[in-house]
Amino acid sequence: MLSNELLKGLESVAQKGNDVKNRFVLNEGQKLVNVVEMILKALSAGNKVIIFGNGGSAADAQHMAAEFVNRFKKDRQPLAALALTTDTSVITSIGNDYSFDDIFERQVTALGCAGDVAIGISTSGESLNVIKGIQKAKMMNMKTIGLSGNKGGNLKELSDICLVVECSDTAMIQEVHLFAEHMICEFVEQIFFAQDNN
């Protein structure tokens, strides 16, 4: 009896996930294309992608950077990307000496250059350290991309392009963010190295 209930629950969650993902592609598909074009332009010019977020979004930042630097599906040269969520000494020193709100802003200042792409990930769109990182990136003439949820929050207003998962369920937002991140990595890889071969 319990297994039947669990199975129904799994099917319901899976269907909800498919509905949210389909709605995301319908609503944000053109912006997803624009994100791919923005990243391709930056990489082609010798710039890099800098990615950051908190919690599950920090894991997403690291995952996405790994797909660029190592490989997604093709055996190819590395692409320049880094996650600002990996250096615990830098993060904790900034958090201790200044504020946790400054952990991405100071790293963007140190590591970013005009023409780079900054990707801030926040399921609420309101994470202050992500907002400050994106604000600093804009001040430095970097291109900015947000991945958010709900209505997008401040991240939507500040980013050059913001991909918004219109959903209030944090776990579901994170799942669709990962889907979007994989699509970005796949199409950047395909197009960048097709260009490289021509």
Please, could you describe this protein's structure?
With about 200 residues, this protein is α/β, with parallel strands linked by helices. About 60% of the residues lie in helices and about 15% in strands. Strands 2-1-3-4-5 form a 5-stranded parallel beta sheet, with helices on both faces. It is globular. The mean pLDDT is about 95.
CATH topology name, in short, is: Rossmann fold
Rg, rounded, reads 17 Å
User: In CATH, what is the homologous superfamily?
Assistant: Glucose-6-phosphate isomerase like protein, domain 1
Look at the helices and sheets and give the structural class.
alpha/beta
What is the total domain count?
1
How far is the first residue's CA from the last residue's CA?
A: 60 Å
Measured as a percent range, the helix fraction is 55-70%
CATH top level assignment: Alpha Beta
Strand content: 5-15%
CATH architecture: 3-Layer(aba) Sandwich
Largest sheet: 5 strands, parallel
Order of helices and strands: HEHEHHEHEHEH
Number of strands: 5
Given as residue ranges, the uncertain stretches (5+ residues, pLDDT < 50) are none
Number of helices: 7
**Largest sheet, spatial ordering of strands:** 2-1-3-4-5
The residue-averaged pLDDT reads 95
Topology:
Layout lengths: L1 H43 L4 E5 L2 H14 L11 E3 L4 H10 L5 H9 L5 E5 L6 H12 L3 E7 L3 H6 L2 E5 L4 H28 L1
Parallel strand pairs: 1-2, 1-3, 3-4, 4-5
